[in-house]
Amino acid sequence: MKKLSFLTVLLFLVVCTCLQAAQIGSWKVYMSYHNATKSVAMGKTIYTIANGDLYSYNTEDTEVRTYDNLGALNDIDIVDIGYSQEAKKIILLYSNCNIDLLDADDNVQNLSALKDKSMIGKEISNMCIYGSMAYFSTGFGLVEVDMKEGVFRNTYRLGLDAKSVAVNEEKIYLATTTGLYVCSRAENMQLQANWVKNREETDWTQLLFYKNQLLGLRNNTLYTIDTQHVGAANKVYDGAISFLCETNDMLFWGNAESICYTSVLPNYTIIKENNTWSDVTYLGGTYWVSDQYKGLQGYNINDKQTQVKVSSITPNSPERNLSYKLQWIGNRLLVAGGINTVAGIYNQPTAMYFEDDLWTNFEEMTEIPEEYSRIRLANTTNLVQDPNDPTHHFASLHRNGLCEYKNGKFVKLYNCDNSPLQSILPMSKYYMNYVACAGLTYDPEGNLWMLCSETDSILRVIRPDGKWLSLYYEAINHASLCDNILIHSTGMVFVTSRRMDKRGVFCLDTKGTLGNIRDDKCVLHQSIVNQDETVYAPDEFYGICEDLDGRVWFGTTLGLFVIDDPGTVFDNNFRFTQVKVNRNDGSGLADYLLSGLPVSCITVDGANRKWVGTRNNGIFLISADGQETIHHFTTADSPLLSDAIQDIAVNSITGEVAIGTEKGLCSYMSDAIDAADDLVKDDVLVYPNPVKSDYTGPIAIKGLTMDAEVKILSSSGQLVWSGVSSGGLVTWNGCNMRGKRVASGIYHVVANNDAGNKAVVTRIVIIK
Q1: Can you give the CATH number for the domain in which 560 is found?
Q2: Is the pLDDT confidence value at 9 over 70?
């Protein structure tokens, strides 16, 4: 018992540490600060955009700071950044047209008027800073922001779809879909008649004034544009230019093949080849380069030579803002980056885990063997950890097979050339890019299951000895996009086939004889008939999970459905259940829970409550019996990054709820952890204890059994507060039942199990 109690105390310390770092009810965001794409200098600090997020590097004390929407910033997904020396402020432009102004003391002013305005063509395509003004080209014309005063100065509705803007002391140039226009700043710029067409070309992608000379990018070619004579332009450089910028009185441009710079056009010098530069900023004798996945790097540039002076400044963070599938293994969060089923669009293969406040990003397969030179790795669908080896992982790829990792390092790619995996298009020249794999999960015997869509054997298994099994079932032969699998506590297997002609919930009972399919029972339920004989035919089937009572929940485009007893799915009269929520208005009527709402994922916490993610309406926390919506989080009323939820995972030790969205990963500190099997006095612990006067957060009591009744009594035995545990945890706000903060003193905690036949008592000390 002493050993068990010691381990329990250690486990409680983990919970306490989490409560200290993130109180119950608080949020975290896990943004990615890799892939540096643009930087500006303010004072002695470089501010860098990476994956749409912001971090800074102080060139004097080398401090690295990150920024997010829970701290200084007001939004996510930054698409551009600029700096005004006159205003001494940085301007941040977000993808939704929101704008933040940031000064050197981290004071932020938000300008949300454009974001909040309902209008056609408000999307911003380009930004130009001149003096203290920021100019934005939009689908309707031009917007002017006074960065010093922090106000929108002018909006020019010109009826021009503008793609880029350049400003000098005398004129403003707009590159539009109908040509290149110019207007004198001395004229009334609100009048479209004052905008004169300078050139007919409609595909200028960037304009820039350099030493009062107008430059333009068009068809990967850099031109100087004569501002005195309409229609005149001279070619400077031809070669797929990916960036163009001015810094330290120098002009830089380049692509993956070469970087060029000059101080006098049309002459220029090629200084670097085979690079990933995307921007250059000068500060303190160093050229600071946004070097994509190499991070922010400081360079010395002399003649035709470059030398790295400060290398790879990248905050520890997720490699990308991709979080398609999540799983907690103890206090380690596994993250599989994502899938994109839109033709021609690929998410980089991303597998990573978070543990002890550090991110480990798995190595990508960069050196591809000659026979796989045509493989295009993309779209990680799942990441799992070997139950017998925490350093051994597998990641599935939507169209490239299965990757094996050891200590985060790539070991092997399994595809149709070296394993029983099959290509969807075996006769194609690019057959190796059509090897579907998803739904990775281990069963209690250590077998690794996977789903291989659009092939004959959708279900495949790797045994602990490395041998493969291919399980053929006609019901799901060549089913499309099978991506969720559940190994039920009974041993049954449930698979969701998302779409097309074999969509539905596939139910399998192997009878405990894996590999011998002759005695297997299986059925594919494509239509859903509920307990009231209402028939549904969802377009798509999504996430699936088992709750603490053994019921199977799954989401569809038409809502949430339940299999109450898995063993009955093969019965001819089997019916699904839709939870009914009583209206409690005296009518005696009830409504189906979340009916008609597209449910993308679902999981349960230690209190058997359901965390339900939707495709476009955020997250719902539903009570264990389904009768109460405890929380509904959306981007409008919480720090949730997006209302499009991809996956949810609950840490049963700490209660942290990880939420994967289409915009990245965030989490919510919940008030439920796994329940104890029995009430043990030494295991029922309180944090913080004592509760000091400056503490205002929740007081946590853990080590409880499911639905334990907890009472707080004064030293004289008077009832102060009572509650019921969520799983193994209950929280008290330190107030009595009238909502008043209790006085200093010693309070008794009395916990009874739900049967009422066992109780334990501990104490809390309150100091005011």
Answers
A1: 2.130.10.10
A2: no
- State the Cα–Cα distance between residues 323 and 375, nearest whole angstrom: 23
Which residues does residue 180 pair with via DSSP β-bridges, in sequence order?
Answer: 175, 199
Q: List the strands of the sheet with 521-525, edge to edge.
A: 480-487, 493-499, 504-509, 521-525
Tokens, residue 16: 């306490």
Helices (H), 395-448: none
The letter for the amino acid at 73 is: L
| pTM, two decimal places | 0.91
Assess if residue 266 is contained within a domain. no
Q: Do 621 and 492 reside in the same domain of the chain?
A: yes
383-354-27-107 Cα dihedral, nearest 10 degrees: -120
pLDDT in tens, 666-725: 999 999 999 999 999 889 999 889 999 888 888 999 999 999 999 999 999 999 999 999
In 3D space, the residue among 292, 207, 214, 279 whose CA is nearest the CA of residue 243 turns out to be 279
Residue 21, C-beta contacts closer than 8 angstroms, at least 6 positions apart: none
Nearest-angstrom CA–CA distance, 511 and 521: 8
Ramachandran region, residue 466 (left: φ > 0; alpha: ψ -120 to 50; beta: rest): left
Q: Give me the sign of the Cα torsion angle 78, 83, 84, 87.
A: positive
Q: In terms of domains, do 700 and 606 share one? A: no
**Phi, psi of 107, deg, nearest 5:** -75, 135
For residue 594, what are the domain limits?
Answer: 479-629
Distances in Å between the alpha carbon of 35 and those of 190, 278, 314, 319, 347? 39, 10, 9, 8, 14
**Domain end position, chosen among 572, 603, 629:** 629
Q: Is 371 a domain residue? A: no
Q: Are 306 and 297 in contact (CB under 8 A)?
A: no
Q: What is the dihedral of CA 63, 66, 72, 73, to 10 degrees?
A: 140
Task: Tell me if 150 sits within 8 A of 140, measured CB to CB.
Answer: no
CA–CA dist 46, 552 (Å, integer): 51
The size of the chain, in residues, is 768
Q: Give tens-digit pLDDT for 551-591.
A: 999 999 999 999 999 999 999 999 999 999 999 888 889 99
Q: CA–CA distance from 710 to each of 355, 412, 601, 678, 699 (Å)?
A: 32, 53, 32, 15, 13
> Domain end: 608, 629, 650, which one?
629
Kindly state whether residues 625 and 485 are assigned to the same domain.
yes
Q: Which of 705, 698, 695 is nearest to 15 (CA)?
A: 698
